[in-house]
Description:
Blueprint: H1 14-44, E1 45-46, H2 50-77, H3 86-92, E2 103-104, H4 105-133, H5 135-156, H6 174-181
Parallel strand pairs: 1-2
The protein binds fe (ii) ion (FE2).
Amino acid sequence: MTNKLRYTVPGMSESDAERVVELLQGRLDATNDLHLTLKHIHWNVVGPHFIAVHEMLDPQVDAVRGFADELAERIATLGGSPCGTPGRLVEHRHWEEYSIGRATTQEHLGALDLVYAGVIEDYRKGIEELGELDPITEDMFIAQTNQIELFHWFVRAHLEDKSGNLSTAGATSETEAASAAG
Length: 182
Ligand SMILES: [Fe+2]
């Protein structure tokens, strides 16, 4: 899907606006994927800490869905057309589908640690680039990253020992992280 802009916000060049829209669309794909993944985990966790983790995740789902809405509306504000279809997301994402079904809370939190880490890394790359392109969108990315990093800490606090070591340290895949945490 091409995203030729017919107009954009005052004071921004068309080429800058096109790049900002691309960065926004990338985060729209990531947040749509993330809120669906968080619900999937909410439904599939089992074990003694079920209710704590099950209930911890719903406010994260709601917040991340709100981020997707903000990102999409920023695309429209810049004169672009946000794409929120599952097909686009699957075609363009550079990460793998979340790979764990029914599993213990620790296993899912271990895998979710890696999911959040990937999402945050991409937000930070976007922030770096947006510093030159558009401080308004940069501000949105910064505010969303602040919340997502907080949620990442909620997850990591379950994976940490008394000395502050993470059980998932060094894991390079969700399954590896899940088995290290479990
Ligand atoms: Fe529910």
